[in-house]
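The pair is quoted verbatim below.
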Amino acid sequence: MKAIKKSRLLAAFGATFALVGALALTACSTPAEEAAPAESEDTSAEITTLTVGFDQAYPPYGFVGDDGEFTGFDLDLAAEVAERNGWEVAYEPIDWDAKDTLLDSGAINCIWNGFTMEGREDDYTFSEPYMLNAQVVVTKADSGIESLEDLAGKTVITQVDSAALDVLEGDQADLAATFAKLETIGEYNTAFMQLESGAVDAVACDLSIAAYQMSAKPDVYVQLSESLSEEHYAVGFKQGSEALATLVTDTLREMDEDGTVEELCNKYAEYGLSYSNWVLE
């Protein structure tokens, strides 16, 4: 009898211990929905003003017109996109070096100014590409420079933090190593002034910039037939702004379908801009 009572007592004690352990585990556990934080909602498209960061010395995409007002192909595109979405538009001329800080701080909510996307895909959320571009070299017509090989021993200048500089420090680094010097400057208008004066031998720049400068002074500048690279322009947004990037892309596509884009291209044709380079369909 004593043996039986002892056995029952041990069994009862074991059951109680198991129950207490189970309750303790339950109290310490976290529900799955609490353990995994919910993804933050993308509210990037919920804006009232499209604040465009741009380089005011970058014709024909963004520059100061003869009337002293900001103008340009990209600024016109941005204004139309804003109007169709019920936003105000604000143009914010920026120091190109400061563009990332301004975008991250919210001082601007996009970079829209002949902005090359290749090589920057990990740094921004981009719209779909809308314009074909290339990096080219421009020299004086009487320089005797006819090919990229002829740049050996010459001084070449480009804009700081530009796509042309990226190419010359990257895929075309071997070519740049043959230069006497590769210089950088804050904006391209001054670069071409230095080219015209003879202070430098060539300017490496976007195809659109070359077309603009050559259309203004066709007897002074020539573009080498060989390009440094081909690429595309897109609108750059802060990383994670997928909703805003998609909405802008969709609006640009609508503008192309109704003929607005072609009209704007024709408006700036005298600056060397061509609708044939539009790639967003």
